[in-house]
Amino acid sequence: MVLESFLSSVLEQTAPLLLAALAAMITQRANILNVAVEGMMLVAAFTAIAVGGATGNIWLAFFAGVLASVLASQLLSIMTLKFNADFVVAGLGINLLAGGATLFMLERLYNSPGGLRPISFPELWHVPAGSLAFLPVIGPVFEGQSIVVLLALLAVPLCWVFLYRTPVGSYLRAAGEDEHAARSAGIRVDRMKALAVTISGLLSGLAGVQLAMDKLQFFLPDMTAGRGFIGLAATLFGGGQPWMTAAAAFLFGIFGALGDRLQAFDIPSQFILMLPYAAALLGLTFARWRTVMRNRPAKITE
Amino acid sequence: MTAFNDFLRAVRAPLGAITLTLLLGFLLVMMITDQPVLAYRDLLLANFDSWSNFGLFLNRAMPLALIAIGITFAFRAGVFNVGGEGQLFAGAITTTMLGVALAGLPPVLLFPIVIIGGIAAGAFLGWIPGVLKVKLGVDEVVVTLMLNTIVLLFTSYLVNQVIRDTAAYGAVSQLVPKEIWLPSLPGVPKASSGILAAVVLAVVSWVVLFRTKWGAELRAAGTNLRYAEAIGIAAGRRVIGAMLVAGGCAGLAGALYVLGIGHRFEQNFSPDYGLVALTCALLARIHPIGALFTALFYALMLNGAAYMQISTDVPRSLVDLLTGLLVLLMTARVVISRRKA
Amino acid sequence: MTDPQNILELSGIAKTFGDKVALKSIDLAVRRGEVHVICGENGAGKSTLMNILVGIHKPSGGQIRFNGQQVQISDPIAASRLGIGMVHQHFTLVPSMSVAENLFLGRHPKKFGLFSDRQAMVDRARALIEAYNFGLDPQAAISSLSVGQRQRVEILKALAFDAELLILDEPTAVLTPPEVEELLKIIATLRERGRTVLFITHKLREVKAVSDRVTVIRHGESVSIHNTADVSEADIARDMVGRDVFLVGRKGDVERSFGDAVLKLNGVTRTNAAGRRLLDAVSLEVRAGEVLGIAGVDGNGQTELAEVIAGLSTMQAGNIWFDGADISDMTVAERQALGLGFVPEDRLDRGISKTMSVAENVAATNYERANILRRGFVSSARLAEFAAEKIKEFDVRGAKPKTPIGTLSGGNMQKVVIARELEREPRLLLVSQPTRGLDIGASEFVYDRILASANAGRGVLLISSELSEIFALSDRIAVIYSGRIMAILDRADADEVTVGALMNGAGKEAA
């Protein structure tokens, strides 16, 4: 039982990280360092809670959240691709704007700068308890998980198929790897980048929606708390490959879940919260260190 | 005459971005309140209504200016330092810890110790991403972002569990000894004299960057690392050096905040100074003296927003929103001008 | 008004970028089934013209007729639909993808309307490879192929879509002499099969070897058209430059005496991560007053040789001596202090910082020497003065001290690099590909400075893949192949046939 509940919480912790990581991965493959995942998640989380609280309709809340994130991604893509803004700076701009706009609306519309806690909030679809009882271990782990968690898991193979088995995915990779080659093959590089940013917005939206709607059902300013950046680290850690990126996201998720368990012991909560960030930092450093070591000139053996 | 034209050309783009943002903000304010002019007057001018307001305005500008000046070095060396916030916190907490722990020392000794401690802590946090970038090619944006969160959590632990002032409300530390508090600015009672350090450092930084060989080498490393290596510059050391300066400046900002303004460590003392300072540095087109002025402008808005909120029903978070807009708008400018250059 | 013989006709094609005029007025008529050469100096507008023909740039004026029809070429896909295929000078292949994927990049065959039909790609690629007998594996990743193989993939890419007109942009620049022969044969085959070939080059020998007709362009204008058989290389050269050309050269008949060895390499070996030897036991010496030319096809270790000598990369075995002192473990700065001057092969990569001013670029290593520091601080007046002196002395055109160097032409950037390195009065000048991308005027200037340096008693190590340059300047010629020095010949004993063979690894092994 301990194992199952631990794995279950790993899955829950991982889902938003995984989606954020895939969001950053798609743009990474188009040669864009996307720091805006964080802000797009935040926008989605706020919109989902606001719409869900106002309408009581779960699907309206879900789609409104994702749509808001996609709209934010369009703003990023217009500023960078149309007006030549630097991707990192504009991404930070999106983050600041997301933080500012959500706070502004909390103050202006809800008069509660501390957060938004609808009195009643509709439930996302969850895997019903007992429905997977016939599967040992796996069953209990998945029971009670939200549909977005399942979508997150599904997104990994989908991203892989998209990148490696569809023409557009190939063109997107070509645009990211060698713009000159892509352009001379008639690929519209800017459109590929715009597409990558849009997909990234979609995935970030799912991440934000999961974060706010699944268990918490409320919105706090800055509730994403750097998860978008951890996703970015997972992508760099996984070398932009879907499976490796997913593995890295799970690794960070495990640290998150481990942190929750350790809270039972007498460890200050701050150190536990630190774990995924420290893991991401060390993991990234280790990945680079290995690459550097592998590329060292070989010793001469006579 | 040409110098004046150069100056005009340099400030045109930032001023354009600021104007556009303020205009957009004004439209927004017009939709919210029926006193948009009053709201904007307070946002921009209430800082000059009294000496006390003016003093608070200078206090707000000090950390922004110092961090932004530091970030100028990082950018000029080609490092995208998003770690200002973590470096600032490291400086502030170290100064506080030393001040509280060594309270018995004579002030002449204690003062330099806590200042140097703050600078060193900030510099150390700048050193980490610098070394990782130079030696292993780890992306500094991600590293500094991760470090920010880690440092903030760490200071939260220290201030809550180690040096907390149990008599006070919220996550604040014990006070540092009164003997090492910074004096206020002559004539402006509410203003800490820390702003003077920012002014001096802005000028010194300009000289170092543009009038010394070290600065020229740093800029060469930042604009083309492989070129810098080929002409015999220890390019990696320059990059790390720039990050030490950047972190040191932010650490100093933290130290001076504690000694001059807060007199203790407060976990929520920064309205994201690190990121706003990055904005200031970029808006100033990575120029230390320009960064001083953009920092003053931002401080104006940050404090003005509070006055605006009191006198009208426009929430102060309007400024956060405007900051986001400005960052989005100004980067378009920065990149275009970088390409032309 | 159109000649039905012509497959492609251009009239009055112009192109401006902002206020910069790249093409003034180009007229061109290419007959069906011929091999037509477009010949012009670097910067004459050849690349711009080609990019217009394949739809990467849009012309600012003029007309294009293809097969008698006036056409607008909006993008590379439109060009390939018309039947215009392009083989770029800089390959347009995605390294991580396979040959087949690259052949069909931008136009993957699909299955179920959604997915790439990978099997179809491989099959069609294989059929194409066999049809032209190119000997490639359709599933091999591009990154695993040699330069010659990559070029064949480029050609196939154009042929895959039935290009009637095949444009080859400076295709021989990256090839070994035998690979060039191979390419010329391929071009002959293409002509036999009824394709028209438009061949862009600035190498006069190739013009004579390959073409039926030649159009010369200069400063963005077409200046002449000839039947190749009717003109000499000198005639074409005169059209290209607009005057008679005399590239200075080392006079072989003058008796010369050289000093002691300034630079000496002994068994210098550099490996890559896989253990392959990029430099394999290189031993050579350069004497004071001598130009030692390193001939070789690009990618045979020249880059590594320059970097190892300059101190920019490590070696795994061997020693380097400078004026009798072992400098193997010295930093770049220490070597420069001893008297090493370095003109790197790629100016934009290692030679300059584009966004910094001409003054800061030329002063970069000379602050003390040129007396620019006043009490430790840079005197901006003295900096400008120094830069102005150098701009005048080295004839850097269109530059003021404060001009960002990136706005200058390649030739003028190179002059700044050379000015900076010579200011140090080096004992040895290491120059790598010194005239790459330069027009003839700037090349003459560079040659002049290299020879003057040797005459002033400096040692010169000249690395170049332009054989004519090696022959014009060197006192001795070393040939590098696959990281090895194949032979070191006196200029008097060397001829192009011998050196060409050595460049391909033939001849005596340097065992």
From TrEMBL, chain A:
The chain crosses the membrane at residues 32-52, 58-80, 87-106, 144-163, 271-289. Its main location: membrane. The keyword Transmembrane applies. GO terms for cellular component: plasma membrane. It comes from the Bacteria. It is a multi-pass membrane protein. It is found in: Cell membrane. InterPro entries: ABC_transp_permease. GO terms for molecular function: transmembrane transporter activity. The keyword Iron does not apply. Keywords: Cell membrane, Membrane, Transmembrane, Transmembrane helix. This is ABC transporter permease. The lineage of its organism: Bacteria, Pseudomonadati, Pseudomonadota, Alphaproteobacteria, Hyphomicrobiales.
From TrEMBL, chain B:
It holds the Pfam family BPD_transp_2. It is a multi-pass membrane protein. The chain crosses the membrane at residues 12-33, 53-75, 87-103, 109-129, 141-159, 191-210, 239-261, 273-298, 318-336. It comes from the Bacteria. Its main location: membrane. InterPro entries: ABC_transp_permease. GO terms for cellular component: plasma membrane. GO terms for molecular function: transmembrane transporter activity. Keywords: Cell membrane, Membrane, Transmembrane, Transmembrane helix. It is found in: Cell membrane. This is ABC transporter permease.
From TrEMBL, chain C:
The keyword Transport applies. Gene3D superfamilies: P-loop containing nucleotide triphosphate hydrolases. Residues 8-244, 263-507 form the ABC transporter domain. Signal peptide: none annotated. Its main location: membrane. PROSITE patterns: ABC_TRANSPORTER_1 (PS00211), ABC_TRANSPORTER_2 (PS50893). It is found in: Cell membrane. The keyword Repeat applies. One of its GO terms (cellular component) is plasma membrane. SMART domains: AAA. Coiled coil: none annotated. It is a peripheral membrane protein. GO terms for molecular function: ATP binding; ATP hydrolysis activity. It comes from the Bacteria. Pfam families: ABC_tran (PF00005). Keywords: ATP-binding, Cell membrane, Membrane, Nucleotide-binding, Repeat, Sugar transport, Translocase, Transport. InterPro entries: AAA+_ATPase, ABC_carbohydrate_import_ATPase, ABC_transporter-like_ATP-bd, ABC_transporter-like_CS, P-loop_NTPase. SUPFAM superfamilies: P-loop containing nucleoside triphosphate hydrolases. Belongs to the ABC transporter superfamily. This is ABC transporter domain-containing protein.
